[in-house]
Design brief:
Layout: H1 5-19, H2 26-33, H3 37-49, E1 53-56, E2 60-63, H4 65-87, H5 96-103, H6 109-118, E3 144-145, E4 154-160, H7 165-174, E5 181-187, E6 194-198, E7 202-206, H8 208-211, E8 214-218
Antiparallel strand pairs: 1-2, 3-8, 4-5, 4-8, 5-6, 6-7
Length: 224
């Protein structure tokens, strides 16, 4: 791409914020990248001059088509690498995020294509996040958190946030992983714990912090 790792990190972070329905404000970007607000302000001005985003003070940043394309390419590298590390190299799903962060800026397009072919052109990474296609199309992403789900309604776990290894290890231990059937049994009032049932009558009680990090897709009703 000919761009610095820092530029790619910013574009990816802004894309992720937007995909999650959040504003790409200086504060949100700084939090996502663990940098100072002053650093974000300087970088946004630089990226705007490169025509990779539009930025207005107090309104946040919005990627241009060029910036969006680069962000999707970096995300494709990252998520393919995560799956490769897990499925081929035997990493656990709580280890792959940081490794992919280090590698995503350095693989060639040929290496990317080889990974995709080896993995049979996957659509989602180990955490359920969608993998952009080669031509920049993003598959649908699960958006409904357990905290927002309806009671006594069948769902499938679509994805989980992947930045916290401790959370991932905990979720795997209790069986909260992508592809698993799940149903909310009870919601305690005033943002209290949520009781859920997984497959094989595995019942768990989740705090709001955990329930907000796991996203679901509705089960399609059979027409037969």
């Amino acid at each position: 791409m000919g761009l610095s790792q820092s530029v790619e990190d910013y574009l990816k972070a802004i894309y992720i914020l937007q995909s999650e329905g959040k504003s790409a404000t200086t504060t949100n970007i700084a939090k996502a990248l663990d940098v100072s607000s002053a650093s974000v302000t300087n970088m946004l001005k630089r990226l705007a001059k490169m025509n990779l985003l539009d930025h207005e003070s107090y309104k946040g940043a919005k990627l241009t088509s060029a910036g969006n394309k680069i962000a999707l390419e970096v995300l494709r590298h990252h998520r393919l690498l995560e799956l490769y590390l897990k499925e081929i190299m035997g990493y656990s799903w709580d280890e792959v995020h940081d490794e992919a962060e280090n590698l995503e800026h350095h693989i060639s397009e040929q290496f990317e294509d080889r990974i995709a072919e080896l993995l049979n052109h996957p659509t989602h990474d180990p955490h359920g996040d969608p993998i952009p296609t080669k031509d920049g199309i993003m598959p649908e992403m699960a958006q409904l958190s357990i905290a927002e789900a309806e009671v006594n309604t069948p769902y499938i776990i679509g994805r989980v946030k992947d930045q916290d290894p401790k959370l991932l290890r905990y979720l795997e231990k209790i069986g909260v992983i992508p592809g698993m059937k799940i149903e909310v049994l009870e919601k305690t009032p005033f943002s209290g714990p949520i009781k859920v049932k997984l497959e094989e009558d595995n019942e768990q009680v989740l705090g709001q912090a955990v329930a907000s990090e796991v996203f679901l897709v509705e089960v399609e009703e059979s027409t037969t």
